[in-house]
Amino acid sequence: LLGLPYFTLVPAALEEPGLQSGRAAWRFRERDEALPASPTGRWAPDDHRPLVYVTFGSVAPEMDFFPGLYRGAIDAFSALPVRMLVTVGRERDAAELGPVPENVRVEGWVPQREVMPYATAMVCHGGSGTVTMGLAEGVPMAVVPLFADQSWNAERIDALGAGIVLDGGADAIAGLGDAVSKLLIDPAYRINAERVADEIGSLPTVDSAPAIARALMEERTLAAIV
User: Fold this and answer.
1) What is the side-by-side order of every strand in the sheet holding 121-124?
2) Which residues pair with 89 in a beta bridge?
3) Which residue has the higher pLDDT, 226 or 39?
4) Whole-angstrom Cα distance, residue 219 to residue 223?
5) Model confidence pLDDT, tens digit, residues 136-195
6) Residues 145, 126: contact at Cβ < 8 Å?
7) What sign results for the dihedral spanned by CA atoms 3, 130, 15, 137?
8) pTM for the full model?
């Protein structure tokens, strides 16, 4: 198995260079899908303040991180001249966060694909799906890794210069004010994130994977016959 080619949605930039094997990697990106006809209703209104998208994934809200982590993130940088879109998961009640400032909108869940094109920056936990989707749109991010593979993904974001990592789990949330300010002020973070977006954009979509898999199988079958 270690010698066989593999299919992945992970761009080469997110893989640790020193751990890459000699296996052939077939890389893909998500399918191209049109955005809703009127995406301006909820997260892209006629408010020109930068939109900062805050998500800690679908697992963290069901753990002891809620509601303290989310309230801490809101308090850390809601005073900045930004709009905040915070998602807390379908199983949580936004009311548990208490009153929020006028520039903060709390949702249970949103289609990230529809939000990313309008986000100026993102605050996240470093989950693979969230990180990859954010980079695909060139969104710089502040990463607060909490568990699983998130610290590893955060290291890659730091190495790419596409964001800022705040180590220390939930205790690091107080540093988000400075981190988000840097993401908004220093264009280097977005430039680096957009470099990865270009890499992802050059990949074929997953629609082409079946044909490639079929061709590989036919090639191996012919090789076995010969």
Assistant:
1) 104-107, 83-87, 51-55, 121-124, 141-143, 163-165
2) none
3) 226
4) 6
5) 999 999 999 988 888 899 999 999 999 999 998 888 999 999 999 999 999 999 999 999
6) yes
7) positive
8) 0.86
| pLDDT (0 to 100) of residue 40 | 45
Which pLDDT belongs to residue 176?
93
pLDDT confidence of residue 44 = 60
Contacts made by residues 1-7, CB under 8 angstroms, sequence distance 24+: 5/216, 7/209, 7/212, 7/213
The per-residue pLDDT for range 56-98, each reduced to its tens digit, is: 987 877 778 888 889 999 999 989 999 999 998 888 888 888 8
Q: What are the DSSP E strand ranges found in the chain?
A: 6-8, 25-27, 51-55, 83-87, 104-107, 121-124, 141-143, 163-165
- How far does Cα 6 stand from its chain's mean position? 23
Q: Tokens 């800690």 sit at which residue?
A: 56
Query: Are the CB atoms for 153 and 143 separated by under 8 Å?
Result: yes
Residues linked to residue 122 through DSSP beta bridges, in sequence order: 53, 141
Distances (CA, A) of 181 to 2, 83, 109, 124, 191: 44, 13, 25, 15, 16
Using CA of residue 85, residue 87, residue 88, residue 93, what is the dihedral sign? positive
Q: What is the largest CA-CA distance in the chain?
A: 71
* Beta strands 121-124 and 104-107, pairing class: unpaired
Say if residues 141 and 73 touch (Cβ distance below 8 Å). no
> Which of 180, 182, 173 minimizes the C-alpha distance to 70?
173
